[in-house]
Write the structure tokens for this entry.
Amino acid sequence: MGQEALHGRPLHAFAFAVDEAQVQDRCRAAGVNVRLHRAHHIARRKGVQVERAVDGELHFVVSAQPISRNAETVARPCDREAAVRVSSASTVWQTGAVKVGWEEVRALRLARHHLHERAPRGSELRVVSRICGLHAQLFSSAALSLWARVEGATLAGLRRALWEEGTLVKSWAMRGTLHLLPARDLPVYLGALSTYRHYLTQGWVKYFGLTREEIELVIATVGKVLRGRVLTRAQLADAVVERTGARKLGAVLRQGWGVLLKPCAYRGQLCFAEGEGARVRFTHPGPMRQLEPERALAEVARRYLGAYAPATRDDFALWWQGTTRTQAQRLLESLDVTAVDLAGTRAYLLAADASPPRLARSVRLLPAFDPYVMGAPRSGGLFPAAHKARIFRPQGWISPVLLVDGYAEGVWRHERKNGRLQVRIEPFAALSRRARAQASEEAARLAVFLDARLDKVVFA
């Protein structure tokens, strides 16, 4: 991150630390000489704008040149908070943040999503936890997201984890969309989801035709009637009517899209059970001690950055959809993060991730609604802006994507018929010979996963 600057022009950096030794150690690790002495006018002299005074901490503004040029670094105490913490990279004077390129973003996200190389066999739960769950609008897409990340993942293994072992839970979560989450992570996510209150606003109350008290009654009653039971939507509605004596509550529960079922899921009173033919069924996730809401939301934000950083406040607000942009920024900055300049925009990554791995070469066939694509900044960087509409389609549909070295190079689809599999790949531009060969290899792996014989791969 920013290593090209170490061997060229002089470096200028904001730095933040609680003691002088930390400044010296971390600047030396970045490849610069450091000498500390007191001065008071560097900010004024260099035209630096610093923010918010912080009591009880020692701050520095650092101006540096590479060790290779035998130049000394002067780090001077400053009584105001600097823009970012000292990292292994120097920062850019004009922005006050480490500059990060999209190649570094791709390298970090590929590693976090296990798309640079598949995780070992049997690590499905760890991977699902690490990427903040699987999108489950389509069960087949959730399965293919695991297949793209975990060696030896199978459809049978995913069904077993969901419906027999209970180590994965299917429920409405972030943005009101269906997710598969590790059962052990539910106290965190449900604690954070308890901050969702939009369904109690006047617009939603009017839509439901219920009072806020009646909505609360539905949520509490659903939790009671589902404990130890598995019910279809109709059976659940009947049970609520029987317990409350209010027919209109049952009518609301029968409405499409799970409108009032979602708040029940946010409150930890409902999750999905194994279906019965074409009929969806629900159950109770079981008793648990949820994390306190503010602490849980901070933990979800930390996990989000672990999977999707560097990310802006807008990125997190879009992914979570339960905070304003200002709230999202305040939440991210409350964590142990490093601020970076990503294409001229302030973004954040966990301080522990300040030195991203090298970009690994890999090709993957990602399914519809894959988390890597769902979490991509809509401004571009991980896909060609000219083809955004082919990936992010109307009504919230997210296309299957051909991912080459962390960048969306096309879309694809497959058809399985009579035990034969056909894969059609539509690149956005001409593919390299390596990308075509590895995409064909992935298609062959897909055939094995789907218990089919690969008929042909077409590059259209």
